[in-house]
Amino acid sequence: MRLLAAGIHDKACKELAGRMAALGEQVMTLVAVDTNARLQEVQDVVVAAKALLDRVALGQDPSAEVCALVEQTAGWQRWWPWGSWSRRLFWGKFPRELEQTLPDDAQAVKEICALLAEEGRREALQRALEQYHPPEQLSVWELHMAFNGDEALLPQIRRLVDGEGLPPLPRHYAGREEEAKALTEALQKRSLLLHGPAGFGKSSLAADVAAQLMRSGAMASRALWVDLREAGSAEEVEARFSAALGVQMENPQQVTKCNAAARILAALRGLAEKAGGDGGSSSSAVAVVVVVDNAEDALVQPAAAEALRGVVQKVLAEAPTVRLLLTSRIPLGGGLAVTERHVGPMSPDMAARVIQAAALDLTIDQAARVAAACRYVPLVLNLVAEALAFERLTLKVRRALHKEALAYLAVFPSAFDVGAAAAVFDFEQNHPKPHEVLSVLHQYGVLQRADRQQRYIMHMLVWEHVAKLGAPGDDTFQHRAEGRFVRHMLSLLRDWADDWKRHSTLALAQAQQADLGLLFELLQGLTLEHGVDVAAAALDLTDKVADLLAALGLLQQMRGPCEALLAQLESAGPGAAELPPDVEKAVASVLYMLGVVHLTDKRYAGAEAATQRSLDLRRHALGPEHCDTIALMSSLASCLQARGRYEGAEPLYCQALELRQRILGPEDPDTIASMGDLAGFLKIRGQYAEAEPRFRLALELGQRVLGLEHQETINTIKSLAGCLQARAGLDLQPATGSGCDDGGKLRQRGLSEDQRRQLEEAETLWYKSG
């Protein structure tokens, strides 16, 4: 408000202040007409608040000087798109100003400052915290995810710094020192696969080895953790690598097996170069270690196995500064040059040490007998050690509650946080809070930390045991848990979809692809026992959700869910006289999604029929100028365009753009998308002169609103480049390799000056788009 009250915004702000003052006087008049004691109290509060605001207004206001400085340094347009000031503000004051935040813990602040005195550790902490937002931002949500209030700050920061990118080791992890040392030495020379049965500690051992490589200083300076649990398709494998690398997936229609692996390779090489390796073939020093956990889930599915092996092959051949450390219950196969190391049970002496360290009152002989009963299997040893350390027998009163909690949590196919757990729990109000339940289960050892964020995961053997025991209570327990999971995931989908064009939102969604896969499966078989309102679930499948799923490469998986939901919603038959209003809107929503799925699958007749019917329903239920109705105009235009019916597509594109400009404004992302849609249509029709200025305007607005690195902006850059090529009468492909300059000169021979300019600009745009 202070910035608004100065410079170019001064007049507008004063007018606003005047209207607010007049409104305040009206409120005071209304309050004064009644002497009722309650109204008198309200009047006292209003007077006190007004006096307080008056005192604040008298304070010295430096905003005029701020505005003048900004105007002198290229104006607001130069500074507004860049949010790096907030990031610099935080990191510039952290950790030294913790003394003000934690005045009663000066020793802890001193130790934190000493820990982060080295620049490399500060940078490691920044990378560990900035998980989902672009580098210019640091969100409160990220801080919330990284730290919990149940533990002192110093050990949490130390774990983030020392094990950046890796999950924390179990509390009683021990007994593998020599094995870890040997694997660390071997990993410096070649990539490895840790192969062994479930529960034998492959994941913990891999995290330990990767952390040792990082702590060595002279070796790897970056680590990535790629969890392939429940990754049963090529798209999911790519999504897990993309999420770990923080890169956005491309349109699945444009991605082949080769270029998906190439994109991952390029990101890994770039990371290796930043981490100290040259990213190319001239160096064999380890710069980045990538742990690929639970590889067996991908290897048992042919398409996913081929995708994984493709990535491994690319990295082995073209990224010598990157080391892969895979864990799997089955061999990798494919004849790849990855050394396999078998992981077996612990030695009896080491196993006894683990038990005795957890229960100090046990003799070494007693600990040895306990270890023998555990068959020296690391997971079983850890569970027993945690139980002994936590004095399990004193908690019998809550044992039933914890069993019930585990049964609820078994619905998650991958990692979950406190919010997700709270969504599926069905406890009475007097029960412990969700974070307390998770904390106890973690201390028992039945839950593990999935990463350095506040997320948990259930080991696969524990999950299988819980599933085998079945749910407590009645036969509908499992269905109710699944129903709550469905409602939770649909809510998340809508939240993500409302802001899906941000890089951080896509990163969040990519990290939960296993959950999305289960959601799609459950939507195909909803029953009354699930307790899910089918119409409400259908309404959650908004147009923006379709856009989000397309960006994630998951849209085609929605065909089954859409057909199942439609069958339930139209149980009276699609020819019923009239549907209830809520059901009518729900049917329209599902039909829209189904139309987009058909269009993606190139079933154009089915796409047009579903989209036309959805548009008719929305016009009736929502009106012709509702945002959802306008979205269907663009979608129907795309269907007509795909079928070659250009005369019907063009007026729909134009109408959608005109309505969005008038209703949403010219800088709304949907308006920019409509502008790009119309420009693309004109380009396909060969009307390059009309398409080019529209592409340029869409690009200008996209850079300002979405940012240069957003996929929509990159797509617009490529489209503009293609338009310029076409105007020059060329079949341009971006030049690669050492012959780039010569190829450019050859292509320019015999061209007019205008054609040469267009060619040069097109090449520049191609390279700019990456």
UniProtKB/TrEMBL annotation:
Record's keyword annotation contains Cell inner membrane: no
Keyword Cytoplasm assigned: yes
Chain spans, region Disordered: 737-757
Pfam families: nSTAND1 (PF20703), TPR_10 (PF13374), TPR_12 (PF13424)
Annotated AAA+ ATPase domain residues: 188-336
Keywords: Coiled coil, Cytoplasm, Cytoskeleton, Microtubule, Motor protein, Repeat, TPR repeat
UniProt superkingdom: Eukaryota
Annotated GO biological process: microtubule-based movement
Residue ranges with Basic and acidic residues bias: 742-757
Protein name (database record): AAA+ ATPase domain-containing protein
Species this protein is from: Edaphochlamys debaryana
